[in-house]
Amino acid sequence: MVKKRVGGLRWAIAILLGIGIIINYFDRLNISVAAGPLTQEYHLSATQLGFILSSYLWTYTLLQLPIGALLDKIGIKWLMRVGTVIWSIATFMTAIVSGYGLIILSRFLLGIAEAPTFPGASKATGYWFPMNERGLATSAFDAAAKFSNVIGAPLVAAAITIYGWRAGFWVTGVLSLIYAAVFWLLYRDPKEARRLSEEERTYIVEGGAQQEEQTGASTSWADTWTNIRYLLRQRKIWAMTLGFAAYGYSFYLLLTWLPGYLQRQLHVSILSSSYDTAIVWGVATITDILIGGWLVDYLIRRGYDPSRVRKTLFAIGMIIGVAVIGAAFTTDPTIATIWIAIALGGLAFAAPIGWSIPALIAPKGTVGTTGSIMNFFNNLVGIIAPIVAGYIADRTGGFAINFLVAGIVLLLGIAAYLLMLGKIEQLPSPMEKRSPAPPITTGAHRQSA
């Protein structure tokens, strides 16, 4: 039987979101690639560099809970439109300003602007995709975070090598501004998308896509904070959050410090470190799409229990991530790159599984908030990881202990995920929890519990 084609607008939206993540991460990795010349110009210690590398995450993390509420209240389109424009300005600002404090200030602004990106992409995926395509759709934007390093690191490194470290920010700023215009013109939610055919709309809705909430004044801020308090009391939310935060520690350690580690500790040139970085993140991109996306959907379509598939593959990916410890025992750049590539390959395919869970377990009307709770704690450890790494490097004169710490954090995350999550299914809403139980009568009218 030939499968009926229902249209492909949803995949165009996935590509649009994925390109946005690529550009978004250009503006995060540029500071990492510029770590060497930046350190020389401002005479920075490793601890000070760690603060710069993590600084955009301070405001990014603080805004995760309110951003999630805003996504649920006023919608994806406008928050992400405004965000893309502001993050372009922040990137240009980094190229213009001078001094340690002003660079940190520009990274603060970048964190504010980028706060809606991942929760917004997760929420949009919930709107646009049926359940049986959710894995691959999620990996489209999650793999983009990895792929950005494959093309972004050499691009930024080339600009820095030829024109100086500020050129890396001019290049990524221009790309950000172009994407801001493209997103403004093209992104719409399904209910606003005129090019969405009725066949594809029906396919999306009947396949279990999240229902689009009415945004605006219908949800009060009191209700929003009630939802947050309710979600923070749920064991599933904490299992999801702690497991993903463990992944986030290693992810942000490598995202922020990998080029600097290769340049400072293993004495690799800026261009050579960018090539090693591209190889590592190239492996991560492939495993993200093939395992975290395609394989998850394939196994679920074959009839395997969706909850078991996601939990098993997430745990396997995290266990493979523990291979990062291997990099602690070598000073050879090639061997270190191999260990890190293996580890990040496992973590990469765990990530889209983790990002698919908020849309699967969130009570009705709280997908953005649920995703932002997870992302808040994920990025909280993202703040900690680069600073701890710099502190350890200053105190020990090397980077090895950082890989051991990352491995221990991953083991703790695996335990939380496997022991606490239970079945991956939608939680009841706070109103359902507060609804009184039906009366129990006697005799023929007795109701079962």
TrEMBL record:
Protein name: Putative transporter YybO
Domain Major facilitator superfamily (MFS) profile, residue spans: 13-425
Primary site of residence: membrane
Keyword Membrane attached: yes
Alphabetical UniProt keywords: Cell membrane, Membrane, Transmembrane, Transmembrane helix
Topology of the protein relative to the lipid bilayer: Multi-pass membrane protein
Location of the protein in the cell: Cell membrane
Transmembrane segments: 7-26, 46-63, 84-110, 167-187, 237-258, 278-300, 312-330, 336-361, 373-393, 399-421
Transferase is among the record's keywords: no
GO cellular component annotations of the record: plasma membrane
